[in-house]
């Protein structure tokens, strides 16, 4: 069986394969860290994108203070790999998840979670009391995304009081994620609306402090807004994730702030007609929830999935030159349109530099959605 090894040529890899440009990825990390170095805000990157302990360790070495994960199962992977300061950014609900969290907390006491309901708090608290464990929590606020989160102001205060009545839960912060603003193309509009969200978040944090709650963490922001958030007084942490690799959706919204550092490599397996080529990357290799992936170096050529395992490249007659350049066996690389959902389709990162395979990293938290 062919087993790729560091030192192999990129050209020798089987496809579809997820390729990381090591140089560009390192530059993305350095660029992000440089942007926040001069601010009092710390970076707690979101690992729901990369799903990789190797990348988490690199981020920690670059100076981030800890990491976010979306789910308990992701936290299990990262904690096992030695990443202790983890914030789980989704509400933990249901006995199986609560049991998993408590088991994890026993060995990794620095894990913290967000809460947004009395029901959720009550169930967590009961399990913690039985286990005699303590857990730090952040109240999640709805700052406009209309996903999870209590309303800023009075509702948050009421929830804080409820948490205070639980002996094994300790309120240490607030989270308000403005996911609905990340991809707004117009920077002024993104900035204006982000500042409105930051106002809601930090005003509530101040109200909670006035009421006597020790709010140390005010966490927010993704790749599209983190810098705007960091300029707002009262924000203490930002949670960007996609900046590591970017995708076309983010590039189209933000411009070349970070480089597109990840591609999916495919092979042309059939040329059935003068304006169509079939590649071996379909819905199981490239996600399309944020639009179609973009083939590199083929202007005027478009991609569409042709089932689970196939993709079709097509072009009009004016772009006939592209057809002439394609042959069966050619390698076509794609920029994903949405990096998170594409990475979750792959087992392995092939990290390359100058056309040579440098490292092979498993996507260890792939499929960890529980
Ligand atoms: C709560 C939370 N924080 C941060 C992020 C990171 O955002 P991005 O990958 O856009 O940088 C996400 C992404 O969905 C998120 O859900």
TrEMBL record:
Pfam families on file: Ala_racemase_N, D-ser_dehydrat
Single GO molecular function: D-serine ammonia-lyase activity
Domain named D-serine dehydratase-like: residues: 261-353
Family annotation (SMART domains): D-ser_dehydrat (SM01119)
Gene3D superfamilies in alphabetical order: Alanine racemase, D-serine dehydratase-like domain
InterPro entries: Ala_racemase_N (IPR001608), D-amino_acid_metab_enzyme (IPR051466), D-ser_dehydrat-like_dom (IPR026956), D-ser_dehydrat-like_sf (IPR042208), PLP-binding_barrel (IPR029066)
Record-linked CDD domains: PLPDE_III_LS_D-TA
One of the GO BP terms on file: D-serine catabolic process
Alphabetic keyword roster: Lyase
Family classification: Belongs to the DSD1 family.
Record-given protein name: Alanine racemase
Organism: Reticulibacter mediterranei
